[in-house]
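Title: Prediction job returns without error message
Component: structure pipeline
Severity: low
Priority: P3
Assignee: unassigned

Description:
Job completed but the reporter wants confirmation the result is attached to the right record. Sequence as submitted:
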Amino acid sequence: MIELDQLTKTFTQKDGQKVTAVDSVSLSVGEGEICVFLGPSGCGKTTTLKMINRLIAPTSGRVLINGEDTMSLNEVELRRHIGYVIQQIGLFPNMTIEENITIVPRLMGWDKKRCRERATELMSMVALDPKLYLKRYPKELSGGQQQRIGVIRALAADAPVLLMDEPFGAVDPINRESIQNEFFQMQRQLKKTVIMVSHDIDEAIKLGDRVAVFRRGKLVQYDHPDTLLAHPKDEFVGAFVGADSTLKRLLLVKAGDAATQPDTARPDTVLATAYQMMEESDNRYLTVLDGDRRALGYVQRRVARNGRGPCADALKPFATTVSVDDNLRIVLSKMYQFNSSWMPVIDSDGLYVGEVTQDSIADYLSSGRSRRQTGQAAIVSPAVAAAEASNA
């Protein structure tokens, strides 16, 4: 876990005037999380990032990694245990790709066999054939390929912490999305604690577990991406996340979050009863479940109106279903594809958990609810907790 406790950096200009680049920033990043520092140029994002690995010394405040103040550590050893990725990539042109990737492991005394195995493993993670690329030099790779090498080089020594300063900013949009996806998949496997600097709100909400918005050196808001979009703290944050913030939320909210639990029927439920249930709820359909709560299909109200047998006789199959973890953008895409206003939501065991409708999606997005981060809560020091409360 990383904690910033009242972290401040003041520079003295040539005329002797003092400028505060970072002003009493406090936040915590839980183990295995991705935190994105977001804000316009000159707001203090990169300065804050560089104070974490002591490339810039703080004027006051503390950086703690797993509870240990980084100022008490040898700075060389500190940096060897923190991966660092920059926008300019920074590959050494006179070294092969393998030598570039393994530079830190070699400094740490790893043998050649272990270095080669690590380089091969990481190359495979970013879809680059080790046999084709390890012996090449940076100039023989495209910009997107070089950026991939820059990312995995920072992971080579298996450092638990990764700092990334606009790592994908210089890559064209098509390669950027591909590299972001590859990085996200790698993070799901490796579970590093990551702090990333970005000025791109779409990148922040796509990759971040939490987003820190900076303005003029101050931390303005620190929240889960969906909370940031649903409840911007002030006009500055609202303008930064954009007027289409509700549409951006479609990528963050899951079908399970917007699902409702309407009445359902059994295969042996008589159609007259099913019709009465639909009349009372003003629904045009009724989902039919078996005894294990598996969705078998549905019956239509117009069919049930004059039906005499059980629901099993009038059962229609679903055109498609959605998973509880499908985001609302996928859900809406399926709705338009199949010309449907609703879909059953199925969990990982194949069981019915409810249904999502166009109305339930609209209700969720307009209700003020937001999807907060799940999983184990981060342990936050009292100082950080107080600071975050003031920024909420």
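Comment from assignee: result matches the submitted record. Confidence is low (pLDDT under 50) at residues 373-385.
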